[in-house]
Amino acid sequence: MRLIPVPFVFVALVVCVHARATTLQYDRPVGIVGTLTERRGVDCCTYGKQSEVSYPAVELDRPIDVELAAGAPPDETAVTEVGVTLIHLVIAKKEHWAAFRARIGKRARVQCSLFHAHTGHHQTPVLCEVRGISGAQGFREP
């Protein structure tokens, strides 16, 4: 029996996991699938003080990588992120809030535009400006 060194196995696993990530671009319409959740985090500097807040999020079915789109104007806030599995949802419309609340704890498909965190109010490195939330029954990502 031939033994495989542990560091080699670890590197091979990391490469395999990363190879499965889908690459998406900032500021482009996308559809992501995962479980809707409400998380707790620390909001920086509201009225000069830190406070604990809850925020809407999606735990993705599969990790994604996010980068600036080719040909897009330079943006110092659009940092490439690798292996993203949790995304803070930015929800502005009442109907999107209703759809989110109705599906907390369930899989859903979220249509949105991704952007990188740039203030102390943002709870994850990548955020999603929500354009729609629907059920994900039977929907599988490529």
List the helices and strands and how they pair.
Elements: H1 6-19, E1 22-25, E2 29-46, E3 49-67, E4 81-90, H2 94-102, E5 107-116, E6 126-135
Parallel strand pairs: 1-3, 4-6
Antiparallel strand pairs: 2-3, 2-5, 3-4, 5-6
Summarize the structure in words.
This protein has 142 residues and is an alpha/beta fold. It has one domain: OB fold (Dihydrolipoamide Acetyltransferase, E2P). Helices cover 16% and strands 50% of the residues. The chain is built from 2 helices and 6 strands; from the N terminus they run H-E-E-E-E-H-E-E. The chain has helices spanning 6-19, 94-102, and strands spanning 22-25, 29-46, 49-67, 81-90, 107-116, 126-135. It has a 5-stranded mixed beta barrel with strand order 2-3-4-6-5. A hairpin with a 2-residue loop joins strand 2 and strand 3.
